[in-house]
Structures are given as C-alpha cells and as structure tokens.
Design a protein that fits this description.
- This protein is of the alpha/beta class.
- It folds into three domains: 45 residues, Transferase, Pyrimidine Nucleoside Phosphorylase, Chain C (Transferase, Pyrimidine Nucleoside Phosphorylase, Chain A, domain 3), CATH 1.20.970; 226 residues, Pyrimidine Nucleoside Phosphorylase, Chain A, domain 2 (3-Layer(aba) Sandwich); 88 residues, Pyrimidine nucleoside phosphorylase-like, C-terminal domain (Aldehyde Oxidoreductase, domain 3), CATH 3.90.1170.
- It contains 16 helices and 13 strands.
- The strands form four sheets. Strands 1-4-5-13 form a four-stranded mixed β-sheet, with helices on both faces.
- Helix 10 links the parallel strand 4 and strand 5.
- Bound molecules: uracil.
- The site of uracil has 6 residues, from helix 9.
Length: 431
C-alpha cells in the first residue's frame, strides 16, 4: 500500500477501504507531515462516506489507550459539548445526575481561544485537584458516583497529531474530521453511552443549523456503527449560554442553579442534557420523568450536596459555595453601558474573546489565567435594554486588559428598535 495512491484516490473522490484508512493512521510518525496534510485537504474538499468516517474513528480510537471502566457498576454515560461560551453545563449536570444515581466519569478539557474549559473553572476552587489516576477515579465513582477530572493515559494520540496539522493547514472545518476527532476521544474514554451537545451559532464551530445537523447526524451514525448509544442535542450558541463568562463566575452561576436560585437557558440546556443522560443510563423511563428527578434534586438540595462532595473528595474548599468572597477576587471592575434598545444580536465568539482578553482565557495551552476575570451580562437577546443599569460588568486584575476586553465586547453586541423573537436554547434532538 502506498500513501500517494491513497491521496490520489481521495483527490479523485473515490472511497477509501478500511485497510487504507488504518494504513494512513499507522503511518503517523513514519510518513512526512506534507502527505498527511494533502490527504486532510482532499478529505476536507471531497468528504467521506459514513463507513469511511466510522473506520477513521476506529483507527484513531485504537491508536492509544482505551479506558476500562468495567470496575464501575452501572451504565456509564458521558456528555460532550462541541464548545461554547458561558457553557457551564458540566458543573450543573455532573453533580445533579450523580445525585440521581448515575455513575459519572467526566473527563474534561481546558479552555482555548474563545471557549472556556471545565478544568479551569474547577481549578478556580481553591485546592481542587483535577489530576487523578484511573484507579483513583474509579474508586471515587464507586464511592460517591462522580468524578470530574483531566484526561488520564494517552487517549487517541493519532487525533492529537492530526488535530495539530489541521489547525495549521486550514482543515479544521470538515464535518468528517470533526466528527471522527470528537467521537474517537469519547469512545476511548470508555463510557457506554454519550450525550453530545452540538452547539450551533455565532459562538460555535457550526455556524448554521444545516452544518450542526450534519455533524450531529454523523456522530450519532458513528455511535451506531461502533455499537454505542449516542444522542446528539443541537443547542443555541447565538448568545452566551449563561450570563456569567469566566472561571469563578461560571462556578458561581452553576452553584446558583443547583441552589434553585436561578433558571434560564443554562438551566434549560443542563436539564435537557441531564435528562437524556438519565434515560440512556437506564435510571428513568423517559425524559419527562428524568427531568422531574433532576428538578426534585435541585429542590431538595441533593444536587448541591453532591457538588460539595465532589469538591471535598478532590481536595477543594467547599466553603466557596456558601461564601463566594472566598474565591480569589478581581482587583478591577468596569460597568459597560450600550446604546438603548432591544438586544438584537451577539457575536458570541467575540464575547468569548473579550472574556479571554480580560485574563479569563488563553491563546496557548501553557498560559496562566486569571480565575476571577470575566464578564457578567445582565441582558439576553430579545430583552429591552433601557440603559438604567449596566448592560454588563467586566472584571480583571489589569487595566489594559480591561480596556482590551471592553473594546472587543462593545463591538460584539447589537441593540436596535425591533424586538427579535425569544427562542428555546434547545433546537433539536437526534437519537
Ligand atoms: N473538537 C475536537 O475534539 N475535534 C475537532 O475536530 C473539533 C472540536
């Protein structure tokens, strides 16, 4: 078999065989980057069949460790978001579904670019340890039903290599490549079923519903071919999901939901994803009864108690949940006023970039971040902004960063005279 023939085959829109796809993945470290780059571009332009995508996922999945969670009793259900802004569903639904009896092994990532990362949010809790071994994680889930941690082992090294190449060759935006990249990592993490939160809109990879639907269908199809239950839920990312953006601020918003103090879009998406997790996990017969279980555990405080238990078990201080001033506090604050009118649009990606510019995010993996930096937005799309209170409040430790963040933010929000329709943040479900 020869790499050039495979590149030519894809360039001329022909279907690659299973053996050819496994050969390509086996060539990582043996063939030059430029051959992989050429093939990635051919895939980007000419696409792949469902079978090719399932094979590519399988080949990447078997390129590294596969986590064995058999020592945990029950059906393990994972949740994955394709990435958004103020997207804190994990911190709501991991403790909440675990409090209903679901074993939750949540391997999360760090924020990069305009999107936040669950690990950074958790590390804003003093003492919280995200670096657990596989055995420690399994013991914790058997003891208290939930763990939220960084990835263990070397999962999907082939995806790591290809993702870096895609990043510098203009080949990130390809549905076959995104679907296989996400699904190989999720399947390697060893769970029995997966709920995918496919974001759609100005703050997401998929900017329109057709692309989001195509990506969602593709990932559900990969699950079917690789015999794993997968549900994809398409949710709106045309505005930040929650009102708080930034690490500490997002932990606080999740805690407020678990305390039953606030509802809204973050609540709605978290409960929709959580209900589907309970159904796939066999703990509820349908999403209506699953949702009732989740709502009940917000009312009776069991969800919040589970969050506290996870924090204590992973070395963090649970007192921050009772007294938010125990979090590191920002040195500076700036109130933002905009032109009065209905809130008509957010450029959500830019809102995420504004928060990162304040110090809440990073542009490379090893950059330090400021946990207390971020933005609290007081209005949502369709609200009438009358200018009496600030549209948003920004927090940072650095006056130059505050200025940068403000400049990006004010350009990212539109107000106008026509009220746009308020729509549900849950757009569509694909099982
Ligand atoms: N997230 C991933 O893990 N891979 C992609 O290709 C895109 C988003």
């Amino acid at each position: 078999m020869n790499f050039i023939d495979i590149i030519n085959k894809k360039r001329t829109k022909r279907e690659l065989t299973t053996e050819e796809i496994y050969f390509v993945i086996d060539q990582i470290g043996k063939s030059p980057d430029y051959q992989f780059s050429a093939l990635l571009m051919a895939i980007c332009l000419n696409g792949m069949t469902h079978r090719e995508i399932a094979d590519l996922t399988g080949a990447m999945l078997y390129s590294g460790d596969i986590i064995d969670l058999n020592a945990i009793e029950g059906i393990k259900v994972d949740k994955h978001s394709t990435g958004g802004v103020a997207d804190t569903t994990t911190l709501v639904l991991a403790p909440l579904t675990a409090s209903c009896g679901l074993p939750v092994v949540k391997m999360s990532g760090r924020g990069l670019g305009h999107t936040g990362g669950t690990l950074d949010k958790l590390e804003s809790i003093p003492g919280f340890n995200i670096a657990l071994t596989q055995n420690e994680a399994i013991k914790q889930v058997n003891d208290i039903k939930a763990v939220i941690m960084g990835q263990t082992g070397k999962l999907c090294p082939a995806d790591g290599y290809l993702y870096k190449l895609r990043d510098v060759t203009g080949t990130v935006q390809s549905i076959p490549l995104i679907a296989s990249s996400i699904m190989s990592k999720k399947l390697a993490a060893g769970t029995d079923a997966i709920v995918l939160d496919v974001k759609c809109g100005s703050g997401a990879f998929m900017k329109n519903i057709d692309d989001a639907r195509a990506l969602a269908n593709e990932m559900v199809e990969i699950g079917r071919q690789l015999r794993r239950k997968v549900t994809a839920i398409i949710t709106d990312m045309d505005q930040p999901l929650g009102n708080n953006i930034g690490n500490t601020l997002e932990v606080i918003e999740a805690a407020e939901i678990l305390k039953g103090n606030i509802k809204g879009d973050l609540y709605e998406v978290s409960l929709t994803l959580g209900a589907e997790m309970l159904v796939l996990g066999g703990l509820a017969k349908d999403t209506v009864s699953a949702r009732e279980m989740l709502e009940e555990n917000i009312k009776n405080g069991k969800g919040l108690a589970k969050f506290r238990e996870i924090i204590v078990r992973q070395g963090g201080s649970p007192y921050v949940l009772d007294d938010y001033s125990r979090f590191k506090q920002p040195k500076l604050k700036k109130e933002i006023y905009l032109k009065k009118g209905y809130v008509t649009a957010f450029d959500t990606e830019s809102v995420g970039r504004a928060s990162a510019a304040l110090g809440a995010g990073r542009t490379s993996y090893d950059m330090p971040i400021d946990y207390s930096a971020g933005i609290v937005i007081n209005y949502r799309k369709g609200d009438l902004y009358d200018g009496k209170k600030p549209f948003a409040v920004m927090y940072s430790d650095d006056k130059y960063k505050l200025k940068d963040g403000e400049e990006i933010f004010v350009e990212a929000v539109e107000t106008g005279s026509e009220q746009p329709e308020k729509t549900s943040p849950v757009i569509e479900m694909i099982r």
